[in-house]
Amino acid sequence: MLLQELKGKNIAVWGLGREGMSNIELVLKHRLAAALYAYSDEICPPPAAYPQVRLFCGDEFEQMLDKVDVIIKSPGVSIYKEEVRRAKARGIRFTTSSDIFLSEMRQNHPETTIIGVTGSKGKSTTSSLLYTALKALGQDVALCGNIGRPLVDLIDESHRFVVCELSSYQCSDLSVSPQIVLFTNLFPEHVDWHLSHDNYYRDKVHLIAHQQPDDVCFVNARCDKLKKYCGLYQRRFRYYNLPEGFAELNNVLCRNGKPLLQIEETLLQGYHNLDNMAGVLSVIDYLGLDVSTALESFKTFHALPHRLQKIGEKDGITFINDSISTAPETAIAAIRSFDLPMGIFLGGYDRKQDYHELARIINDTPQVKVVAVLFQTGPRIAETLKQVLTRRDIVLIEEPDFASAVKKVFESLKRCGGRLALFSPAAPSYDAYKSFEVRGEEFIKIFHNL
Protein backbone atom coordinates (compact mmCIF):
# COMPACT_ATOMS: atom_id res chain seq x y z
CA MET A 1 0.00 0.00 0.00
CA LEU A 2 1.31 3.44 -0.96
CA LEU A 3 1.45 6.35 1.46
CA GLN A 4 -0.98 8.23 -0.77
CA GLU A 5 -3.59 5.52 -0.16
CA LEU A 6 -3.39 6.18 3.59
CA LYS A 7 -4.03 9.92 3.29
CA GLY A 8 -7.05 11.10 5.26
CA LYS A 9 -7.89 7.65 6.62
CA ASN A 10 -8.62 6.63 10.18
CA ILE A 11 -5.57 4.47 10.86
CA ALA A 12 -4.75 1.99 13.61
CA VAL A 13 -1.30 0.60 14.34
CA TRP A 14 -1.56 -2.95 15.70
CA GLY A 15 1.45 -3.78 17.87
CA LEU A 16 3.65 -1.48 19.92
CA GLY A 17 7.04 -3.08 19.50
CA ARG A 18 9.94 -1.49 17.65
CA GLU A 19 8.25 -1.76 14.27
CA GLY A 20 4.91 -0.56 15.62
CA MET A 21 6.52 2.58 17.01
CA SER A 22 8.17 3.20 13.62
CA ASN A 23 4.73 2.88 12.02
CA ILE A 24 3.31 5.51 14.38
CA GLU A 25 6.20 7.85 13.58
CA LEU A 26 5.68 7.30 9.84
CA VAL A 27 1.99 8.18 10.00
CA LEU A 28 2.63 11.29 12.08
CA LYS A 29 5.64 12.47 10.07
CA HIS A 30 3.75 12.29 6.76
CA ARG A 31 0.49 13.56 8.29
CA LEU A 32 -1.39 10.64 6.83
CA ALA A 33 -4.21 10.01 9.30
CA ALA A 34 -7.44 11.83 9.94
CA ALA A 35 -7.26 10.03 13.29
CA LEU A 36 -4.57 7.69 14.62
CA TYR A 37 -5.14 4.80 17.01
CA ALA A 38 -2.96 2.04 18.41
CA TYR A 39 -3.90 -1.42 19.61
CA SER A 40 -1.99 -3.84 21.82
CA ASP A 41 -3.13 -7.39 22.59
CA GLU A 42 -1.87 -6.88 26.14
CA ILE A 43 -2.80 -4.17 28.58
CA CYS A 44 -0.09 -1.52 28.46
CA PRO A 45 0.38 2.21 29.07
CA PRO A 46 -0.10 4.54 26.07
CA PRO A 47 3.08 5.60 24.26
CA ALA A 48 4.03 8.71 26.25
CA ALA A 49 5.78 10.39 23.33
CA TYR A 50 2.57 10.42 21.28
CA PRO A 51 -0.30 11.90 23.32
CA GLN A 52 -2.34 12.36 20.12
CA VAL A 53 -2.57 8.57 19.65
CA ARG A 54 -5.52 6.89 21.35
CA LEU A 55 -4.62 3.45 22.70
CA PHE A 56 -6.91 0.40 22.78
CA CYS A 57 -5.85 -2.73 24.68
CA GLY A 58 -6.90 -6.32 25.23
CA ASP A 59 -10.68 -6.79 24.88
CA GLU A 60 -11.15 -3.32 23.37
CA PHE A 61 -10.40 -4.57 19.85
CA GLU A 62 -14.03 -4.43 18.68
CA GLN A 63 -14.37 -0.86 19.95
CA MET A 64 -11.40 0.14 17.85
CA LEU A 65 -12.83 -1.50 14.72
CA ASP A 66 -15.78 0.89 14.86
CA LYS A 67 -13.38 3.80 14.28
CA VAL A 68 -10.78 2.69 11.70
CA ASP A 69 -10.48 2.32 7.93
CA VAL A 70 -6.97 0.82 7.76
CA ILE A 71 -4.84 -1.23 10.14
CA ILE A 72 -1.05 -1.28 9.86
CA LYS A 73 -0.23 -4.68 11.32
CA SER A 74 3.06 -5.58 13.03
CA PRO A 75 4.82 -8.83 11.98
CA GLY A 76 4.02 -10.59 15.26
CA VAL A 77 0.29 -10.46 14.46
CA SER A 78 -0.59 -13.60 12.52
CA ILE A 79 -2.64 -13.18 9.35
CA TYR A 80 -4.58 -16.25 10.56
CA LYS A 81 -5.88 -14.62 13.75
CA GLU A 82 -9.65 -14.60 14.13
CA GLU A 83 -9.53 -10.86 14.87
CA VAL A 84 -7.93 -10.23 11.48
CA ARG A 85 -10.67 -12.21 9.75
CA ARG A 86 -13.40 -10.27 11.58
CA ALA A 87 -11.83 -6.93 10.74
CA LYS A 88 -11.54 -7.79 7.05
CA ALA A 89 -15.17 -8.97 7.02
CA ARG A 90 -16.12 -5.43 8.09
CA GLY A 91 -14.27 -3.95 5.11
CA ILE A 92 -11.20 -2.77 7.02
CA ARG A 93 -8.04 -2.87 4.93
CA PHE A 94 -4.76 -4.25 6.25
CA THR A 95 -1.21 -3.33 5.37
CA THR A 96 2.25 -3.67 6.93
CA SER A 97 5.36 -1.54 7.13
CA SER A 98 7.06 -4.04 4.78
CA ASP A 99 4.37 -3.62 2.16
CA ILE A 100 4.32 0.18 2.50
CA PHE A 101 8.11 0.35 2.11
CA LEU A 102 8.28 -1.98 -0.90
CA SER A 103 5.35 -0.24 -2.58
CA GLU A 104 6.92 3.20 -2.16
CA MET A 105 10.37 2.06 -3.30
CA ARG A 106 9.14 0.29 -6.42
CA GLN A 107 6.84 3.10 -7.55
CA ASN A 108 8.63 6.24 -6.40
CA HIS A 109 12.32 5.30 -6.12
CA PRO A 110 13.34 3.64 -9.40
CA GLU A 111 16.98 4.40 -8.57
CA THR A 112 16.86 1.87 -5.69
CA THR A 113 17.17 -1.89 -6.13
CA ILE A 114 15.65 -3.89 -3.30
CA ILE A 115 17.29 -7.23 -2.52
CA GLY A 116 15.06 -9.37 -0.31
CA VAL A 117 16.73 -12.21 1.60
CA THR A 118 14.78 -14.92 3.40
CA GLY A 119 14.94 -18.56 4.44
CA SER A 120 14.25 -20.71 7.45
CA LYS A 121 17.82 -20.15 8.63
CA GLY A 122 20.85 -18.22 7.47
CA LYS A 123 19.00 -15.12 6.35
CA SER A 124 20.64 -12.78 8.87
CA THR A 125 24.17 -13.93 8.08
CA THR A 126 23.47 -13.95 4.34
CA SER A 127 21.96 -10.45 4.44
CA SER A 128 24.94 -9.18 6.42
CA LEU A 129 27.46 -10.87 4.10
CA LEU A 130 25.74 -9.30 1.08
CA TYR A 131 25.63 -5.87 2.72
CA THR A 132 29.32 -6.15 3.68
CA ALA A 133 30.31 -7.20 0.15
CA LEU A 134 28.38 -4.33 -1.46
CA LYS A 135 29.98 -1.85 0.97
CA ALA A 136 33.42 -3.24 0.12
CA LEU A 137 32.57 -2.72 -3.55
CA GLY A 138 31.91 0.97 -2.89
CA GLN A 139 28.15 0.75 -3.36
CA ASP A 140 25.62 2.98 -1.61
CA VAL A 141 23.77 0.28 0.33
CA ALA A 142 21.55 0.07 3.42
CA LEU A 143 20.65 -2.97 5.55
CA CYS A 144 17.21 -3.19 7.13
CA GLY A 145 14.18 -5.34 7.87
CA ASN A 146 14.21 -8.26 10.27
CA ILE A 147 17.80 -7.27 11.02
CA GLY A 148 18.85 -3.71 11.80
CA ARG A 149 16.52 -0.79 11.09
CA PRO A 150 12.76 -1.20 10.50
CA LEU A 151 11.96 -0.92 6.79
CA VAL A 152 9.84 2.22 6.99
CA ASP A 153 12.69 4.10 8.67
CA LEU A 154 14.34 4.20 5.21
CA ILE A 155 11.28 5.35 3.30
CA ASP A 156 12.52 8.92 2.83
CA GLU A 157 16.09 7.92 2.02
CA SER A 158 17.67 7.21 -1.35
CA HIS A 159 20.16 4.34 -1.82
CA ARG A 160 21.46 2.39 -4.79
CA PHE A 161 20.76 -0.90 -2.99
CA VAL A 162 18.72 -1.85 0.05
CA VAL A 163 19.28 -5.33 1.47
CA CYS A 164 16.17 -6.44 3.36
CA GLU A 165 16.12 -9.46 5.63
CA LEU A 166 12.50 -10.62 5.66
CA SER A 167 10.81 -13.13 7.95
CA SER A 168 7.95 -15.40 6.94
CA TYR A 169 5.66 -13.07 8.91
CA GLN A 170 6.72 -10.15 6.70
CA CYS A 171 6.50 -12.15 3.46
CA SER A 172 3.07 -13.65 4.07
CA ASP A 173 0.79 -10.84 2.88
CA LEU A 174 2.91 -8.62 0.62
CA SER A 175 1.27 -7.01 -2.40
CA VAL A 176 4.61 -6.17 -4.02
CA SER A 177 7.94 -8.02 -4.29
CA PRO A 178 11.62 -6.98 -4.37
CA GLN A 179 13.48 -6.79 -7.68
CA ILE A 180 15.95 -9.39 -6.43
CA VAL A 181 15.14 -12.23 -4.03
CA LEU A 182 17.56 -14.69 -2.45
CA PHE A 183 16.24 -17.82 -0.71
CA THR A 184 18.62 -19.71 1.61
CA ASN A 185 16.58 -22.80 2.57
CA LEU A 186 13.17 -24.00 3.76
CA PHE A 187 12.23 -26.38 6.56
CA PRO A 188 9.56 -26.61 9.30
CA GLU A 189 9.27 -23.51 11.50
CA HIS A 190 6.79 -21.13 13.16
CA VAL A 191 3.77 -23.45 13.03
CA ASP A 192 2.24 -21.51 15.94
CA TRP A 193 1.97 -18.36 13.77
CA HIS A 194 1.20 -20.02 10.41
CA LEU A 195 -1.00 -22.84 11.86
CA SER A 196 0.58 -25.48 9.58
CA HIS A 197 3.91 -26.23 7.96
CA ASP A 198 2.32 -25.99 4.51
CA ASN A 199 1.08 -22.48 5.30
CA TYR A 200 4.56 -21.57 6.50
CA TYR A 201 6.20 -22.76 3.27
CA ARG A 202 3.66 -20.95 1.10
CA ASP A 203 3.85 -17.75 3.16
CA LYS A 204 7.65 -17.77 2.97
CA VAL A 205 7.85 -18.09 -0.83
CA HIS A 206 5.06 -15.50 -1.17
CA LEU A 207 7.96 -13.04 -1.23
CA ILE A 208 8.19 -13.66 -5.01
CA ALA A 209 4.44 -13.65 -5.68
CA HIS A 210 4.48 -10.18 -7.24
CA GLN A 211 7.85 -10.14 -8.98
CA GLN A 212 7.85 -8.55 -12.44
CA PRO A 213 9.15 -10.27 -15.60
CA ASP A 214 12.54 -8.54 -15.34
CA ASP A 215 12.99 -9.38 -11.66
CA VAL A 216 15.15 -12.28 -10.52
CA CYS A 217 15.06 -14.94 -7.80
CA PHE A 218 18.05 -16.98 -6.56
CA VAL A 219 17.27 -20.40 -5.08
CA ASN A 220 19.51 -22.82 -3.17
CA ALA A 221 19.49 -25.88 -5.42
CA ARG A 222 20.30 -28.18 -2.50
CA CYS A 223 16.97 -27.54 -0.78
CA ASP A 224 14.29 -29.74 -2.38
CA LYS A 225 11.47 -28.24 -0.33
CA LEU A 226 12.49 -24.75 -1.41
CA LYS A 227 12.54 -25.79 -5.07
CA LYS A 228 9.15 -27.45 -4.69
CA TYR A 229 7.39 -24.45 -3.18
CA CYS A 230 9.09 -21.88 -5.40
CA GLY A 231 7.84 -24.04 -8.25
CA LEU A 232 4.29 -22.96 -7.39
CA TYR A 233 5.17 -19.80 -9.31
CA GLN A 234 5.62 -20.18 -13.04
CA ARG A 235 8.84 -18.33 -13.58
CA ARG A 236 12.51 -18.98 -14.25
CA PHE A 237 14.86 -19.20 -11.28
CA ARG A 238 18.59 -18.82 -10.94
CA TYR A 239 19.96 -21.71 -8.88
CA TYR A 240 23.13 -21.65 -6.83
CA ASN A 241 24.95 -24.54 -5.15
CA LEU A 242 25.18 -26.34 -8.48
CA PRO A 243 28.58 -27.45 -9.87
CA GLU A 244 28.06 -24.94 -12.67
CA GLY A 245 28.29 -21.63 -10.87
CA PHE A 246 28.92 -20.75 -7.24
CA ALA A 247 28.65 -23.70 -4.87
CA GLU A 248 29.99 -25.32 -1.75
CA LEU A 249 31.76 -28.47 -2.93
CA ASN A 250 33.55 -30.77 -0.46
CA ASN A 251 33.63 -28.00 2.14
CA VAL A 252 35.17 -25.49 -0.29
CA LEU A 253 33.49 -22.47 -1.94
CA CYS A 254 33.91 -22.95 -5.69
CA ARG A 255 33.03 -21.37 -9.00
CA ASN A 256 32.45 -23.84 -11.81
CA GLY A 257 34.29 -26.43 -9.72
CA LYS A 258 37.39 -24.25 -9.16
CA PRO A 259 38.23 -23.47 -5.50
CA LEU A 260 37.71 -19.91 -4.30
CA LEU A 261 37.66 -19.99 -0.50
CA GLN A 262 37.84 -22.33 2.50
CA ILE A 263 35.96 -21.59 5.70
CA GLU A 264 39.28 -21.62 7.59
CA GLU A 265 40.25 -18.47 5.68
CA THR A 266 37.36 -16.63 7.36
CA LEU A 267 36.36 -15.80 10.93
CA LEU A 268 33.17 -17.89 10.63
CA GLN A 269 32.39 -21.32 12.05
CA GLY A 270 30.49 -23.87 10.01
CA TYR A 271 30.61 -25.13 6.43
CA HIS A 272 26.98 -24.08 5.90
CA ASN A 273 28.26 -20.50 5.67
CA LEU A 274 29.81 -21.45 2.34
CA ASP A 275 26.25 -22.08 1.11
CA ASN A 276 25.36 -18.54 2.19
CA MET A 277 28.42 -17.15 0.40
CA ALA A 278 27.53 -19.03 -2.78
CA GLY A 279 24.17 -17.26 -2.81
CA VAL A 280 25.74 -13.87 -2.13
CA LEU A 281 28.32 -14.27 -4.90
CA SER A 282 25.57 -15.30 -7.30
CA VAL A 283 23.85 -11.96 -6.65
CA ILE A 284 27.14 -10.01 -6.87
CA ASP A 285 27.97 -11.63 -10.21
CA TYR A 286 24.45 -11.00 -11.54
CA LEU A 287 24.88 -7.31 -10.70
CA GLY A 288 28.10 -7.24 -12.75
CA LEU A 289 30.24 -6.43 -9.72
CA ASP A 290 33.70 -7.73 -8.83
CA VAL A 291 33.53 -11.18 -7.24
CA SER A 292 37.15 -11.11 -5.99
CA THR A 293 36.50 -8.00 -3.87
CA ALA A 294 33.42 -9.65 -2.38
CA LEU A 295 35.48 -12.72 -1.54
CA GLU A 296 38.03 -10.61 0.30
CA SER A 297 35.24 -9.01 2.36
CA PHE A 298 34.19 -12.48 3.55
CA LYS A 299 37.60 -13.04 5.14
CA THR A 300 37.15 -10.28 7.71
CA PHE A 301 33.42 -10.75 8.32
CA HIS A 302 32.62 -11.44 11.97
CA ALA A 303 29.95 -13.95 12.97
CA LEU A 304 26.71 -12.42 14.20
CA PRO A 305 25.94 -12.96 17.90
CA HIS A 306 24.26 -16.25 18.84
CA ARG A 307 25.13 -17.87 15.47
CA LEU A 308 27.90 -20.42 16.09
CA GLN A 309 29.53 -17.73 18.18
CA LYS A 310 32.73 -18.75 19.97
CA ILE A 311 32.41 -17.33 23.46
CA GLY A 312 35.58 -18.70 25.06
CA GLU A 313 37.50 -21.71 26.39
CA LYS A 314 37.78 -23.36 29.78
CA ASP A 315 40.12 -26.25 30.56
CA GLY A 316 40.71 -26.88 26.87
CA ILE A 317 36.97 -26.96 26.02
CA THR A 318 35.64 -24.39 23.55
CA PHE A 319 32.13 -23.08 24.17
CA ILE A 320 29.94 -22.22 21.15
CA ASN A 321 26.72 -20.20 21.42
CA ASP A 322 24.28 -21.10 18.62
CA SER A 323 21.11 -19.93 20.35
CA ILE A 324 19.67 -18.93 16.94
CA SER A 325 19.14 -22.66 16.39
CA THR A 326 15.38 -23.13 16.67
CA ALA A 327 14.90 -26.26 14.56
CA PRO A 328 16.44 -29.76 14.33
CA GLU A 329 17.95 -28.93 10.94
CA THR A 330 20.03 -26.10 12.36
CA ALA A 331 21.37 -28.28 15.17
CA ILE A 332 22.35 -30.89 12.57
CA ALA A 333 24.21 -28.22 10.59
CA ALA A 334 25.96 -27.09 13.77
CA ILE A 335 27.08 -30.63 14.64
CA ARG A 336 28.45 -31.07 11.13
CA SER A 337 30.40 -27.82 11.44
CA PHE A 338 32.93 -29.24 13.91
CA ASP A 339 35.27 -32.22 13.82
CA LEU A 340 35.98 -32.30 17.57
CA PRO A 341 34.72 -34.51 20.40
CA MET A 342 31.75 -32.54 21.67
CA GLY A 343 28.79 -32.17 23.94
CA ILE A 344 25.56 -30.57 22.73
CA PHE A 345 22.67 -28.90 24.58
CA LEU A 346 19.18 -29.45 23.14
CA GLY A 347 15.70 -28.27 24.07
CA GLY A 348 13.31 -25.33 24.20
CA TYR A 349 9.76 -24.35 23.35
CA ASP A 350 7.76 -27.20 21.81
CA ARG A 351 6.55 -26.55 18.25
CA LYS A 352 5.91 -30.27 17.67
CA GLN A 353 8.98 -30.61 15.48
CA ASP A 354 10.28 -34.07 14.55
CA TYR A 355 13.59 -34.89 16.26
CA HIS A 356 14.15 -38.38 14.82
CA GLU A 357 16.62 -37.28 12.13
CA LEU A 358 18.58 -35.22 14.66
CA ALA A 359 18.72 -38.26 16.94
CA ARG A 360 19.97 -40.41 14.05
CA ILE A 361 22.67 -37.88 13.18
CA ILE A 362 23.80 -37.79 16.81
CA ASN A 363 23.97 -41.58 16.90
CA ASP A 364 25.94 -41.69 13.63
CA THR A 365 28.39 -38.93 14.59
CA PRO A 366 31.18 -40.39 16.74
CA GLN A 367 32.36 -36.90 17.72
CA VAL A 368 29.19 -36.41 19.81
CA LYS A 369 30.07 -37.69 23.28
CA VAL A 370 27.57 -35.91 25.53
CA VAL A 371 23.97 -34.77 24.97
CA ALA A 372 22.10 -32.61 27.48
CA VAL A 373 18.33 -32.19 27.08
CA LEU A 374 16.49 -29.45 28.95
CA PHE A 375 13.56 -27.03 28.82
CA GLN A 376 10.09 -27.89 27.52
CA THR A 377 11.09 -30.25 24.71
CA GLY A 378 13.81 -31.93 26.78
CA PRO A 379 11.77 -35.01 27.78
CA ARG A 380 10.50 -35.57 24.22
CA ILE A 381 13.99 -35.24 22.73
CA ALA A 382 15.34 -37.61 25.39
CA GLU A 383 12.68 -40.18 24.55
CA THR A 384 13.48 -39.90 20.83
CA LEU A 385 17.19 -40.33 21.53
CA LYS A 386 16.57 -43.42 23.66
CA GLN A 387 14.61 -44.98 20.79
CA VAL A 388 17.41 -44.33 18.29
CA LEU A 389 20.72 -44.53 20.14
CA THR A 390 22.74 -47.70 19.65
CA ARG A 391 26.08 -46.30 20.85
CA ARG A 392 27.02 -46.91 24.46
CA ASP A 393 29.63 -44.15 24.61
CA ILE A 394 27.11 -41.27 24.54
CA VAL A 395 26.33 -39.70 27.91
CA LEU A 396 22.71 -38.49 28.07
CA ILE A 397 22.05 -35.79 30.66
CA GLU A 398 18.43 -34.93 31.48
CA GLU A 399 18.57 -31.72 33.48
CA PRO A 400 15.84 -29.05 33.55
CA ASP A 401 18.06 -26.38 35.12
CA PHE A 402 20.18 -24.54 32.52
CA ALA A 403 23.16 -23.73 34.73
CA SER A 404 23.25 -27.24 36.18
CA ALA A 405 23.13 -28.76 32.68
CA VAL A 406 26.08 -26.64 31.54
CA LYS A 407 28.10 -27.65 34.58
CA LYS A 408 27.30 -31.35 34.11
CA VAL A 409 28.24 -31.27 30.41
CA PHE A 410 31.45 -29.42 31.22
CA GLU A 411 32.48 -32.01 33.83
CA SER A 412 31.49 -34.90 31.58
CA LEU A 413 33.51 -33.51 28.65
CA LYS A 414 36.58 -33.14 30.86
CA ARG A 415 36.29 -36.82 31.85
CA CYS A 416 35.97 -38.09 28.28
CA GLY A 417 38.47 -35.78 26.59
CA GLY A 418 35.87 -33.56 24.93
CA ARG A 419 36.96 -30.35 23.24
CA LEU A 420 33.69 -28.56 22.40
CA ALA A 421 30.49 -27.55 24.25
CA LEU A 422 27.85 -26.66 21.65
CA PHE A 423 24.66 -24.85 22.61
CA SER A 424 22.49 -25.41 19.53
CA PRO A 425 19.08 -26.09 21.10
CA ALA A 426 17.04 -27.08 18.00
CA ALA A 427 13.96 -25.36 19.44
CA PRO A 428 12.64 -21.82 20.02
CA SER A 429 13.19 -20.02 23.30
CA TYR A 430 9.67 -18.96 24.24
CA ASP A 431 9.09 -21.51 27.00
CA ALA A 432 11.75 -19.83 29.16
CA TYR A 433 13.06 -16.69 27.39
CA LYS A 434 11.44 -13.97 25.33
CA SER A 435 13.95 -14.36 22.48
CA PHE A 436 16.87 -16.46 21.31
CA GLU A 437 19.11 -13.47 22.05
CA VAL A 438 18.15 -13.45 25.73
CA ARG A 439 18.64 -17.23 25.86
CA GLY A 440 22.07 -16.90 24.27
CA GLU A 441 23.10 -14.20 26.72
CA GLU A 442 22.08 -16.50 29.57
CA PHE A 443 24.32 -19.25 28.15
CA ILE A 444 27.22 -16.77 27.94
CA LYS A 445 26.60 -15.69 31.55
CA ILE A 446 26.56 -19.32 32.73
CA PHE A 447 29.81 -19.98 30.87
CA HIS A 448 31.55 -17.05 32.54
CA ASN A 449 30.30 -18.21 35.95
CA LEU A 450 31.61 -21.76 35.58
Describe the protein's topology:
Elements: H1 3-6, E1 9-14, H2 18-29, E2 33-40, E3 54-57, H3 61-65, E4 70-73, H4 82-89, E5 93-96, H5 97-108, E6 113-118, H6 123-136, E7 141-145, E8 161-165, H7 168-171, E9 180-183, H8 191-194, H9 197-205, E10 216-220, H10 224-230, E11 238-240, E12 246-249, E13 252-255, E14 258-262, H11 272-286, H12 291-299, E15 309-314, E16 317-321, H13 328-336, E17 342-346, H14 356-364, E18 368-373, H15 378-388, E19 395-398, H16 402-416, E20 420-423, H17 436-449
Parallel strand pairs: 1-2, 1-4, 2-3, 4-5, 6-8, 6-9, 7-8, 9-10, 10-11, 16-20, 17-18, 17-20, 18-19
Antiparallel strand pairs: 12-13, 13-14, 15-16
Helix pairs in contact: 6-11, 6-12, 11-12, 13-14, 14-15
Question: Would you write up a description of this structure?
Answer:
By secondary structure, this protein is of the alpha/beta class. The chain has three domains: 3-91, Rossmann fold (3-Layer(aba) Sandwich), CATH 3.40.50.720; 99-299, UDP-N-acetylmuramoyl-L-alanine:D-glutamate ligase (3-Layer(aba) Sandwich); 309-449, Mur ligase, C-terminal domain (Protein-Tyrosine Phosphatase, Chain A, Alpha-Beta Complex), CATH 3.90.190. The protein contains 17 helices and 20 strands. It has a six-stranded parallel beta sheet with strand order 7-8-6-9-10-11, with helices on both faces. Helix 14 (356-364) links the parallel strand 17 (342-346) and strand 18. The radius of gyration is 23 Å and the shape is globular.
Label this structure with key terms.
single chain; 450 residues; alpha/beta; Rossmann fold; UDP-N-acetylmuramoyl-L-alanine:D-glutamate ligase; Protein-Tyrosine Phosphatase, Chain A; six-stranded parallel sheet; six-stranded mixed sheet; 17 helices; globular
